[in-house]
Amino acid sequence: MSFEEVVKLVENKTGIQVVGARLARIKRLFEQDPMLFIGLERESIDQHRWQRIIDALSVQETYFFRDIEIFDCIRQQILPEILKGSYHKGVKIWSAGCATGEEAYTLAILLLETIRSLGYSPQTEKLLVLGTDISKRAIDKAREGIYKNIPMGSFRNFPGEFMKCFVYHNIGYKLKEEVLNITRFEVHNLLDAYPPIEDADLVVCRNVLIYFDEVSKEKAYKTLAQALRRNGYLLLGPLENPGMGFERRQCGRLVYYVKP
Predict the structure, then answer these.
(1) Does residue 62 belong to any structural domain of this protein?
(2) Residue 9: which domain range?
(3) Closest CA to 105 of 201, 176, 157, 167
(4) Are residues 78 and 134 in the same domain?
(5) What is the pLDDT of residue 60?
(6) What is the signed CA dihedral for 188, 194, 198, 200, rounded to 10 degrees?
(7) Which of 6, 87, 108, 150 is the most exposed place for a label (fewest CB within 10 A)?
(8) CA–CA gap between residue 164 and residue 109 (Å, rounded)
């Protein structure tokens, strides 16, 4: 199999455009271990080999409260609207492409905080924040719920009021059990035929689809839309639009969509 064929197969399986630094990393891996890519054209491939390819492809750059203005809108506008209509039935949120988990945990923290601000007592058995990523290594890290406080790390620009959601750990800080109990992580490919969650109240997929080609982006939109309940909320990147009759709304710089 030629390197050009390998690149095309990787792009078709992940949706991610293999260009620039990603192209260089995949090429280096191909030159070091070409046998790793044998059978890549099949529907099913050995997961250990596949994850080595994914790790060369993905860049897990994320941190808590990334783009604080966006999370202010989630906290002040979107979550209160969801809770006023759905709290007693339960609330489900999906963070798609969550990398090492900081976004999913941010959403969990804000969900608990908003519930209390509205005068409710959190019923954790009715709450779920699901974080997914194509990288098993990233998901394993997310499940630990432990992060180091280092310069330009997970806690850059972190609002001090929410440090109460962590306990000190010998290598950093760990999320408290209340946050961990409502947060779950799974490996998932956005090009899979089915979403990992149904009837979600909120789906967040930011800083992910910018790496997808147009055909793969359309497939991902359908998966994200399928995960939502009617009148559920979808948050994407600033230049992304799901179409499909979604209602466009705005909060400050945040543009988001409501499923018809």
Answers:
(1) no
(2) 3-57
(3) 176
(4) yes
(5) 75
(6) 60
(7) 150
(8) 10
